[in-house]
Amino acid sequence: xxxxTIFCDFDGPIADVSERYYATYRRGLAWVQTHAQAQGDDxxxxxxxxxxxxxxxxxxxxxxxxxxxxxxxxxxxxxxLGQVSxxxxxxxxxxxxxxxxxAREGLDILRQCGVRVVLVTLRPPDQVMRFLDQHDLGWAxxxxxxxxxxxxxxxxxxxxxxxxxxxxxAACNRQGYDLRHAWMVGDTEADIMAGQTHGIPTVAVTCxxxxxxxxxxxxxxxxVANLWTACQMLQQRTTLRQQPR
Length: 245
Prior knowledge:
By secondary structure, this protein is of the alpha/beta class. It has 2 domains: 5-17 and 98-242, HAD superfamily/HAD-like (Rossmann fold, 3-Layer(aba) Sandwich); 18-94. It contains 12 helices and 8 strands. The protein has helices at residues 18-38, 50-58, 63-69, 74-87, 91-94, 103-112, 125-134, 152-155, 158-174, 189-197, 212-216, 227-242, and strands at residues 5-8, 15-16, 98-99, 116-120, 143-145, 183-186, 202-205, 222-224. The strands form 2 sheets. It has a 6-stranded parallel sheet, with helices on both faces. Helix 3 (63-69) crosses helix 4. The protein is elongated, with a radius of gyration of 19 Å.
């Protein structure tokens, strides 16, 4: 089958997770403060503003360092990290996730071009499907390859993304799809490394959890602002390829 396939990450290109991560950070600090007060400790906790917090996340500042800059030390940093890991994917926090601006319009461009969008994510599939249903985006996705572990997306290990992309490629090959013009779209080094490992051109978007300068160091094929821009570029390439010679 000749339909172009776009392998796409979920968090970052499609889902804006910044509010959830910031809410998790705030709740983690509140949890620590409650436990410290119960032990008679008076912590001078400093809540970083969201813009600063997200800049740190985009530049891969370790959570331990963010906790330290927020006024935590020693056992309280460990407690904070453990709490964040436990609650980041809780259903009450998942509702903070929103659709990235113009992502819907970008996905509609691909639909009009007959491009298949295959999600390759470290999120559990049920979380992704719930989001797609809530935001009426099920129409945009042809297939989905996720992870069973609820904490995998937060840890974002590149080897997991490489494995998930490999599974998606194998399934597409079994189904007879032509992947000669496939692309991998994502917002992290894991997405870039997965595409490079499997010989697929990569489009890195800077609207997610990695900064432009950080992503550039991994040498993606293209570096763009968001999924909308990526889809416009891919539309042009698809249209040119489909024109009679």
